[in-house]
Amino acid sequence: MTTMQANGLERALEAHYYTDPEMFAREREKIFHRTWQFAGHISQIEQAGDYFAFEICGQNLFCIRSADGSVRTFFNVCMHRAHELVQGTGSTKLIVCPYHAWTYELDGKLRRAPNQSKVDGFETAEICLTDVKTEVFCGFIFVNLDPDAAPMGEWFPDVEEQLRAYVPNIDQLKTVKINEVAERCNWKVAVENYSECYHCALCHPTFVKGVVDPKSYNVMPQGHCLRHTTVAANLDRLTYPIDADANEHATDYSSWFLWPMFSFQVYPGNVLNTYWWRPQSAGETNMYRGWHTQDGVPSDAIEALAQQDLDTTVAEDIKLVESVQRGLGSLGYKPGPLVIDRDFGVNSEHSIRALKQWTLEALEG
Q1: Cα 209 to chain center, whole Å?
Q2: What are the phi and psi torsion angles at 26 (to 5°)?
Q3: Residue 337, domain member (yes or no)
Q4: How far is it, in rounded angstroms, from Cα 320 to Cα 204?
């Protein structure tokens, strides 16, 4: 196992952490099923009975708005003989299994099963769909398959307060666009690439010239969050218009990466966008990029920014992470020392050290 080397230098994780299917299976149990994962946005289930189905690391789930207005998440499986209950999105007054018509209330409790009266001892009160721990975080829905998981506020201290300061209208936002990209790499390769800007000046010219000032860029751990901060690039070089006087953070950039696989990112102009990842195998990961506007109103500026991001930063990153994944399969690769600057800053990989620490702690726990 990779640890501090004898000379005191911190090394990157060894290659098998990124390539071994058995390691991926271990991560599924130890990390994916025990951490907070993004499910969707509250605007997808505005009315009682609204639902959407989704998948988290091999587990099929669905979120639904209960009759009392609460957001519930259940495993997408009937308690009778395991048929899936819902597909896609929709709205319903009751949850009815399409196999044998077992019928559940919106809170997951069984209402009735056909011919149950002929079965001695059949008690509907004893049967309920399996609940999944759920939190609504600034309008974004997160789930944790571990029923004993600590709340998001403990995992990611101060993030909600900070995010609301950078995006004052966050409760009125709705998703207007999602770009999905398949990446031929391990999820940790993609996450590590996102979590350091050591490569930015060389590999992301549009980002460093038109969005941020690389000289002020820094990434610092905050609980199990990596907080990215920087001042904006010269405002006259921004590639989209903003109101610089709108609020105190109108010209700032920041992002909050919530380990293991989600990030809130705020561009100058209080523009919120989101990143999240869905691992498919040891060497395949789907990346999603969400864009959000007030009340979901279409925006030419956001549409242009989303396309620019897709054509530049995202396209550039795909080449980088896929090259790294190929390199991890090389017999000649030996993990080199991380460049950890005692003063932190843009050219330091202390964030990679934090990711490594969280991963090893989870795998060994």
Answers
A1: 26
A2: -65, -40
A3: yes
A4: 11
DSSP assignment of 34-98, as one string?
GS-EEEEEGGGG-STTEEEEEEETTEEEEEEE-TTS-EEEEES--TTT------SEEE-SSEE-T
Using only C-alpha atoms, the chain has a radius of gyration, in whole angstroms, of 22
Q: Cα–Cα distance between 52 and 43 in angstroms, integer?
A: 11
Q: Are 67 and 48 in contact (CB under 8 A)?
A: yes
Residues 206 and 295 occupy one common structural domain: yes
* Helix (DSSP H) and strand (DSSP E) numbers for the chain: 10, 17
Omega prior to 260 cis, within 30 of 0? yes
pLDDT in tens, 175-231: 999 999 999 999 999 999 999 887 777 666 766 665 667 677 889 999 999 999 887
Among 144, 171, 195, the domain boundary falls at 144
Residue 41 sits in a domain whose CATH number is 2.102.10.10
Cα 354 from chain centre: 17
Task: From 110, 144, 178, give the residue that closes a domain.
Answer: 144
Beta strands 252-258 and 225-231, pairing class:
antiparallel
Three-state secondary-structure class, residue 116: helix
Per the structure block, which two tokens stand in for 8? 């005191």
Q: What are phi and psi of 347, to 5 degrees?
A: -100, 25
Please give the backbone phi and psi of residue 296, each rounded to the nearest 5 degrees, phi first.
70, 20
Q: Using one digit for the tens of pLDDT, what is the confidence trace for 51-92?
A: 999 999 889 999 999 999 999 999 999 999 999 999 999 999
- CA distances for 328 relative to 193, 222, 351, angstroms: 14, 29, 20
Burial of 114 by CB count in 10 Å (0-12 exposed, 13-18 middle, 19+ buried)?
exposed
Overall residue count recorded for the chain in this entry? 365
Distance CA 210, CA 312 (A): 11
Question: 162: helix, coil or strand?
Answer: helix
Reported pTM: 0.93
Interstrand relation of 50-56 and 59-65 (parallel, antiparallel or unpaired):
antiparallel
